[in-house]
Amino acid sequence: MRELAGLHALARSLVHGDDDADDLVQDTAIAAIEHPPDEDRPVRPWLATVLLNRWRMDRRGRARRQARERALGLELAGGNVSGEPANTDAADAPDAIDRARTLERLASALVALEEPYRDVVIRRYLDGQTAAEIARALGVPAGTVRWRLKTGLERLRTALDRSTPRWQRALVPLTAAKGAVVVKAKTTVVSLIVLLLLLGAGMVALLMRGDSDQPAAKQTAATGSGGKTPASRVTGLGSAAEAVPRPDPLPGQGRVAVEPVAAEGGVIGGRVINWSTAAGVDTAELTFTSAAGAMTVRTDKHGSFELAPAAPGVFSLTTIIAPGFLPYAPEFEHSPVRIALGAKQAVRGVTLFLFPAVDYFGTVVDAQGAPVAGAKVKLADPAGGEQVLEKIVTEWTTDKQGKFVFNAPDGSVFEASRGGKRGWAILDGNVAVTHKMTIKIGDAPARDATIRGKTVDASGSPLPDVLITAVPEDPAGKQPVPRSVAYAASGADGTFVLDGLDRKAYTLVAELDDYAQARKERVAGGTQNVTIALDEGLPLAGVVRDPDDKPVAAYTLLVTQREGVVREVVTTRSVIDPRGRFEVRVPKGDYELLVSATGWAPSKPVAASAGTTDAKITLGAGATLAGIVVDAETGEPLKWARVMREGAGGGASAVPANAGTVTRSDGTFELTGIPPGPFTFSIGAGNYHPKLEGGLVATEGGTLGPMRIGLRKLAEGEQPKIELVGIGVQLAGEGDALKVNLVVPDGGAAAAGIVAGDLLVAVDGIAVTTLGIDGAVARIRGVAGTKVAVTIKRGEQVLPLVVERKPLRF
Q: Is the separation of the CB atoms in 451 and 527 below 8 Å?
């Protein structure tokens, strides 16, 4: 009940008026009482998810009901959707007998539906199972279940169209019913269908849905016939992009443009695209929130969307949700994607990404490699914490072969347990390529520790709604088993609980708008009574400009602090602002600002101190690389291979700082925005060994290529290995040098006498403190058979060496 009180702010941002907000919170309370969460699940984010889902259901139900009433109710009464006087002749209206006959035919059609379609339709719409649950029960991929559902519903619709042409009209009185109806009946097919129609409107909505390729209705700013929508009210779903957009010639790399419009509140327009294919995502729902409330728009069949609020303001991109994709749904009010809309200004060409919910195949084995049936597998907090408001499936049980099917974002950590045995695995690049993950269980302590604490302001008063992130302190490369990041939000009294932790050290990072980020290091799992104090800090503000000194309206800002060659990200913000302005709050100190924007080369680091409000960051056009990716053996072009510049990443998954591009159906690509100087780019495709290509030098405004890159296909059971040309060392930042952690036996470094523990301090006579990690690595990479000069420090010795570059596979 204490957490429910904190939901009123969220409810008021979604609906109009305190009464509607109270109703929404009350519905959430009823759902929580009837179906409480697991005892070990954090209550606040779960309640927020329930409330948002209830809001969506009410909104969708209202929109669908109104559409049905307009399209069918008026027609049945002899009128039309334009509201002209209706012919009240009731002869055409479906009576109770018509409805009963239609229900009987629907039941017969369902009974006659051949397998395997009938089974999944009944499981999904009568038993209420999710696609993932059905997939586990039947031992098939979730994608297969979704295909069977789609096919089964299409066949039911076709059968009803043939037998009962007016079946849609007959069902309107049932599906448009406003109140909930409870029916007690024997478990006959007809009774189940009646229950389905009255209680499970989801199937009827799917059956009655028109062509899914039709664009959604244009977003409106009014309700009824000209009534003005209150500022905090949710607008209609839809996209205002009426012109059919052309496919992006540079997938995911288009520049945004600012142009004048008549809309008083300004406009933001763009596309939501599939990260894997760069295709537009149809019917994706985007929710934007501001001090005035929430607005939701839906993409059309090209993935295009447009937000046109009644008044300008500052908005957060709260969620992006689409069937078949992992949701972008971070903790409420903690999305790093911010939009500042100006009056009568449009920002168009914004690109947002969604990651497809790819089916991965997991296996749990024991110490001897034998499969473990009945093992419990759970997902720790998903990497990035971007599935908070819209949950994904996070628990599975292995079948008789020790297998399970799952969807999750890259970087997620999984724990498997059976009896007293447990083990962990991470969804890394290898799993992303092979779609297979193995978790080996054995004797290991449980990760059942918690960190409890409180967030306060500078005066010691409790601070609610602070996002706390627990980051494992040991570097990823040094972890004997994967460790996951944990997330929590402080409650109304400022308290928070981070659970599912081991007993090792974590760094706690606390973030809240209008406050500087606060950090507390070396906090061991199991620590209680931690206090994290946040103060308002100092502003750090400025503008981002293109080479012609015009504002760059969409970009990702990384605020970093540098220690030697290592840059540590302090805060990240994805900004959409026609003025190109940004402002964050940071603790007192010195920082470096880096900006990335699609279609432009990333900026050089710009030094700025806390309190600076006139920083200027200029982006360049950079160079363009053209090429084609093919199968190395057959020469066949590979579509949807991802091509990325190697270098700093960061940013939200919806707006990553370094997105790269994908190849077209003919295998061709153009990679833009490559900064001047030596660079390396990566190429990867499903079921192929990834590759790094170096030895290239970019010039401002120049073009390289076309290049032909061949990828080797994975053999059955083979693990992917990165193919590259280098000297054969693994490096990590340490102070003012790069420490050699690993030397490849057959590489040039081993032949030159470099050993693990050496410190690399210069490349080609340039100090690595000047080059940075990315710059140093780019210079080390190159063409096989060429050589590079490096300076090594070993104890008190300084060793200048010349090392040969060789082809390598890691």
A: yes
- Rounded Cα distance between 541 and 575, Å, is 12
Q: Please say whether the dihedral angle defined by the alpha carbons of residues 81, 84, 85 and 91, taken in this order, is positive or negative.
A: negative
Total count of residues recorded for the chain: 810
- Give me the amino acid identity at 356: P
Q: Which of 534, 642, 549 is nearest to 585 (CA)?
A: 534
Residue 592 burial (CB count, 10 A): 16
Instruction: Give the pLDDT score at 328.
Output: 93
Count of CB atoms within 10 A of residue 525's CB? 22
Upper half-sphere CA count for residue 376 (Cβ side, 13 Å): 8
Residue 806: the pLDDT is 94
Coil, strand, or helix at residue 543? strand
Helix (H, G, I), strand (E, B) or coil at 715: coil
In angstroms, rounded to a whole number, what is the distance separating the alpha carbons of residues 424 and 441?
7
Q: Which pLDDT band holds residue 169 (cuts at 50, 70, 90)?
A: low
Q: What pLDDT sits at residue 527?
A: 97
Check if the beta carbon of residue 721 is closer than 8 Å to that of residue 742: no
Residue 714 has pLDDT above 90, yes or no: yes
693 Ramachandran zone, left/alpha/beta (phi>0; psi -120 to 50): beta
Across 412-442, b (16+ Cβ under 10 Å) vs e yields: bbbbbbbeebbbbbbbeeebbbbeebbbbbe
Distance CA 148, CA 649 (A): 38
Neighbours of 34 (CB within 10 A): 7
**DSSP type of residue 387:** B
- Which stretch of 51-55, 294-298, 514-518, 580-584 has the lowest confidence by average pLDDT? 51-55
- Judged by DSSP in three states, 548 sits in coil
Lookup: tokens for 682: 């990566």
CB of 464 within 8 A of CB of 492?
Answer: yes
Using one digit for the tens of pLDDT, what is the confidence trace for 651-672?
889 999 889 999 999 999 999 9
Place 190 in a pLDDT band, splitting at 50, 70 and 90. very low
Residue 30: its pLDDT value, please?
A: 78
What are the beta bridge partners of residue 573? Answer: 557
d(C-alpha 503, C-alpha 169), whole Å? 62
The helix or strand, by DSSP H or E, that contains position 608, with its residue range, turns out to be: strand 606-609
Which helix or strand (DSSP H or E) is residue 752 part of?
helix 748-752
What angle is formed at CA 385 by the lines to CA 383 and CA 389, rounded to 5 degrees? 140
> Which amino acid, residue 196?
L
Of 27 and 765, the structure prediction assigns the larger pLDDT to 765
280, 299 contact by CB (below 8 A): yes
Burial class (CB in 10 A: 0-12, 13-18, 19+), 22: middle
Cα atoms in the Cβ-side hemisphere of radius 13 Å centred on 465: 17
Q: Which amino acid appears at position 788 of this protein?
A: V
- Judged on CB neighbours under 10 Å (0-12, 13-18, 19+), 594 is buried
d(CA 99, CA 282): 34
When pLDDT is averaged across residues 795-810 and rounded to a whole number, the result is: 92
DSSP secondary structure code for residue 660 in this structure: -
Q: Which of 809, 805, 807, 808 is nearest to 727 (CA)?
A: 805
**Mean pLDDT for all residues in the chain:** 82
Tens digit of each residue's pLDDT (9 = 90 or more) over 227-246: 333 333 233 333 333 333 44
Query: Between β-strands 505-511 and 554-563, what pairing exists: parallel, antiparallel or unpaired?
Result: unpaired
Residue 221 has pLDDT above 60, yes or no: no
Q: What is the pLDDT of residue 68?
A: 52
Residue 141: per-residue pLDDT: 67
Of the two residues 37 and 675, the one the predictor is more confident about is 675
Torsion of CA 49, 50, 56, 57, to 10 degrees: 150
Q: How far apart are CA 408 and CA 381, in angstroms?
A: 10
d(CA 80, CA 73): 9
Q: Which of 135-144, 365-374, 611-620 has the lowest mean pLDDT?
A: 135-144
Contact 129, 203 (CB under 8 A): no
* Strand-pair partners of 305: 270
